[in-house]
Amino acid sequence: MSKSAVRSTSVFLALLALSGCRNDKWGDPAWYGRESTVADIAAARTYMRSVALYGQLSTDAVFDVLPLSNQVRTTFASLYAQRRGKGAVWRDSVLRKELARNKRCIAFYIVTLREVLFGEHCGEWCMTLSVDGRRYQPASIRATRAIPVEYKHIFGRAYAPRFKVPYEVIFYAHDEEGKPLVRPDTNSMTLYIRSDTGKEASVSWDIGPSGITFGG
Q1: What whole-number percentage of the chain has pLDDT above 90?
Q2: CB-count burial class (<10 Å; 0-12, 13-18, 19+) for 21
Q3: Taking the model in full, what pTM does it have?
Q4: How many CA atoms lie within 13 A of 163 on its CB side?
Q5: What are the residue ranges spanned by the domains of the chain?
């Protein structure tokens, strides 16, 4: 084998190894090193929903949706504290701030293909939140260059920054009359994602003791 062929093969194998490292990092919750933490991440992932829309010969869009519910924010606070070597008091302080946000808003992280554009004016896709049949418009939708590393690990292999973009989507937690969207008798919540060509996808969650919760 010629020297140039050997050199090309070595470069290819090196790039392949690096690519594998990048992909595996977010897919392996053992990066945190504790069995309880691995279990927490696995539990948080059960709240993630994924849906895809297809054309005749291609995939139009793929959405991985994580609601920042009380349960998910609790996992975030634990991972955030552990990664910094902090104890329970510091973790609980972070958690109180996280849960306070859920009294003001209902938030999601959505990871989708780079070709998918959200936005009120120039976006090709929009979304609404249905809570027990009542539909609401988002307060804000914004693409973000990166999400906290703790959430990247919850997304796992669904988070692929070379091909996808994370969005932060926020809905007000109260309607125009000041009434909470999620109430004690609320049973379910559905996020609808619709394109300007009329294609629509939806993901749903149960609300309450057997599902997700928001606020205090």
Answers
A1: 53
A2: exposed
A3: 0.81
A4: 10
A5: 3-206
